[in-house]
Structure formats: C-alpha cells, structure tokens
Amino acid sequence: MQEIERLVQLLARLPGLGPRSARRAVLMLIKRKESLMQPLAMALAEAADKIRTCTTCGNLDTSDTCAICRDPTRDQTAICVVEQVGDLWALERTGVFRGRYHVLGGVLSAIDGVGPEDLNIAALLARVGPDHPVQEVILATNLTVDGQTTAHYVTERLEPSGVKVSRLAHGVPVGGELDYLDDGTLATALKSRQLV
Amino acid sequence: MIEWRDDAILLSARRHGENAAVLSLLTRDRGRHAGLVRGGQSRKLKGVLQPGNRIAVTWKARLEEHLGTLTVEPVHGYAAHLMADPGRLLAMSSALSLIEKAFAEREPHPYAFDDLDALMVALDGPGWAETYIRWEVGLLAELGFGLDLSACAATGVTDDLCYVSPKTGRAVSREAGAIYKDKLLALPGFLVTRGASGDTAAIGDALRLTRYFLDRHVFSHLDAPLPDARLRLQDRFRNLETGS
Predict the structure, then answer these.
(1) Range of the domain at A30
(2) Which UniProt keywords apply (chain A) (predicted)?
(3) What pLDDT score was predicted for residue A176?
(4) Same domain, A39 and A14
(5) Closest partner residue to B50 among A108, A144, A187, by Cβ?
(6) Which residue of A has its CA nearest to B230?
(7) Domain containing A8 — which CATH number?
(8) Do both A12 and A91 map to the same domain?
(9) Can you say whether residue A95 is alpha, beta or left, with left for phi > 0 and alpha for psi between -120 and 50 degrees?
C-alpha cells in the first residue's frame, strides 16, 4: 500500500489533480496495468531520459539543438520571443510563423523576485549579433503588466544591435463582441487601430 | 462573519494553488490589505487582476485577523492604458511596489488611495514624469518624512531655491548653498513651481533627490533595497540623459 500512497502523492502534485482525482487515476492505472500503467511508466522514463532543453532557444526536444533550430527550411532572419515553451507550442499550432523561437523562461517580476539575470536574455542577445542573419525579433510576451515590462526591457537591450523589433498586435479577439469586452482590451484596440 | 466593501487599487496578485490568487490592495479606508480571490487565475478575472487596475472589493472573513476572501468588480483598467509606454509602465510599477513595500498592512492612509488614483490617471497624460515625482514627494510626506521646499532653510528666502539639504530635507537657496553645493542635493525647478515641467536632466535630478530620502528614511529602516521597478525607472532616465 505504501507504493500506492506514494503514487497518489506524486500524481496529486500535477496541475489539475488533487488527492482525490490522483487516487482515481491510480485506481484506473492499476486496473489497466498492462495496457496503460506499464506503457505510461515506460514513456515517462524515456521522456525523463531523452528530453533536453535546447541551448540555443530554450525549447524542449530530444536533442540539444531542437528540431525547430535545426530545420533549414525555417526563416533564419526572424526570431519570435515567448515567455514559456507552452507559448511556443501555441504559436506553432497556428502554423503561421515559419521563423525560429526564443523561450525566455518567465517574465520580470518584482513580486516573485525574478530579475533579468534569471531569464534567458543573454542567449537572445548572442543570437542577434553582427555575425547572425537575424533581421527581426518579434516579442510575443503576454499582455500583462509583467509581460509588457519584460518586452520593454528586452527591446531596450536589443536596441544596440540595430535589429528590427516588433510585437504582437493587441486588441479585439476573433469572435469578440465589443459589448462584452473589458475596457482595457477596448482601449488597447483603439490605440492600436489600423488604416483600412 | 465580518464583511466590508471598499474601493481599491491592485498592488500585486500572487498565484495561490491552481486557481486562486492572493491580492495585495491599497484600499480607500483600510490602507494596504490582502485577501484571497477564488478563481483569481481564471481567464475572466486575469484581465481585471492586473496591477494598477482600480477595482471594487468585498472582503469577508470569520475573524478580523484572517486573510479573508475577496470578490472583485472592475472599475477602471488603468494598466492597459499604460502598457504600451515603457516609461509610464515603469512609473506605475514603481509606485505600486513602493506602496507595497513601504506601507504596513491594515494601517489606514486616508489620502494615499486618492493620490494613487490621481497618479494612475495622470500617468496616461502629458507631464506624467513630473506628476510621478510629485507623487513620490507626497508619499514621503504620507510616511512622515515630508520635504520642506517652501523656503530656504538658511535665509528664509523663497526665490532661487535650487538645493535640498540631505540632513533636514529642507530647501536651500543658490546663494546660501553655494559653498556647500557638493554636499547638497539638486532641487529641480519644477518641484518648487506649481504646474512647471522639467527636462530629462531635471527629472533625473528629482529621482535622485527622492531616492535619497526614500532610501534613508524608509527602506534603510525596512532593511530592504528600493524596489527593482523604481531603480529601473531611474536607470531609464539616466540613459535618456546620457543618450546611451
């Protein structure tokens, strides 16, 4: 029973799972030992063994230089800067951006004590030096106070390199009805309006 | 059950567990106050719970000393208006973090809420940097360390005030301060002339002036450094001054 308790405790640490749901998951795994529990254990062990953080961009992959950084068909002149690997995946799902990425690993936050030295900024600066083909850096940090503070900081640091810096547009989401939008989103949308 | 309603400006929101957030607020009647918002990390509330936004809150707890739970309603989304401008955003973050660190929790500061609310409005307009500095001078006064910039500490004259004594926080005229000028702090003209504006160098001088007194009277007693946002704001003006 000690093994089961340990499994419950470990699963309960995962996002979306509490002790009760972890217990249910463990019971399900035990019930489907061959078809689910053993393949899952093997997949976890394999992932723990093989997954690396790309030293170039901060993405996760099975090799140190990730598939996106290795891909010669991707645009080498554009880098999209994101906060977390999850944001990179979200952008990849759209299939619109064909350049490369850079994962900062968080945002500047006075409350959480995260300073510039805690983020993957030095590696970004190294990627936009004079010997590199990068012409544009797209800042895709979240539209939060911390996200935008980080974006402004990165912009300042990139300034000496002379590279073009752009950011994602802010405004009305697809399917959004003006009547239901908060005034902050509406104000940003108005400020970022475009000629048609 | 204890319950109250108040207006508040959000100073910070910390994640708590998977869905909740612990807010630190500057309320109108109760000073800096904390509380838990269930669902504070939801998509619906994330936009509302950005630092700097004005919200209406209802706080409930069984005992006064409990953290309590909050329900929030948006009143004004100040933060969104300032996000596009690095200087204004830094000034907002600096003001919020100064209050967060300098105000004791649940200690009423009757004028602080209206002052901060007015600053949030002013940060979206012209002359925001001067307004920010005046707000810091007001903050020092609210904390009991007000500067006296009305007359020269040595001669009593009210004209040509261009220094501040680091010992007393009182203004000193150009003539009286001439021989001590290396030891005195520069007093930018816009701080003694109502409605006046200052150039980048004057803003830089003013930030050095208020920083000195914030450090000496407030943060040295708290045994803490000035907040990062305040330091970055000063760095920003220094870089603008030197053109780097």
Answers:
(1) 2-50
(2) DNA damage, DNA recombination, DNA repair, Metal-binding, Zinc, Zinc-finger
(3) 85
(4) yes
(5) A144
(6) A110
(7) 1.10.8.420
(8) no
(9) left
Which pLDDT score is estimated for B92? 97
The per-residue pLDDT for B205 is 95
Distance from CA of A14 to the nearest CA of B (A): 10
Quick check: B90 and B236 in contact, CB under 8 A? yes
CATH number of the domain encompassing residue A162 = 3.40.1360.10
C-alpha dihedral over A78, A80, A85, A87, to 10 degrees? -140
Instruction: Pick the residue from chain A with its C-alpha nearest to B15.
Output: A112
Nearest to B123 by CA among B25, B54, B32: B54
* Interface residue of A108, A112, A145 to substitute, partner B, most B CBs within 10 Å: A145
Q: Which pLDDT belongs to residue B127?
A: 93
Interface test with A, best of B232, B237, B238, B239 (most A CBs within 10 A): B232
Give me the pLDDT at residue A170, please.
86
Categorise residue B52: left if φ over 0, alpha if ψ from -120 to 50, beta otherwise: left
Query: Number of folded domains in chain A?
Result: 2
pLDDT at position A16 over 90: no
User: What is the chain A residue with the closest CA to B74?
Assistant: A182
Are A40 and A128 found together in one domain? Answer: no
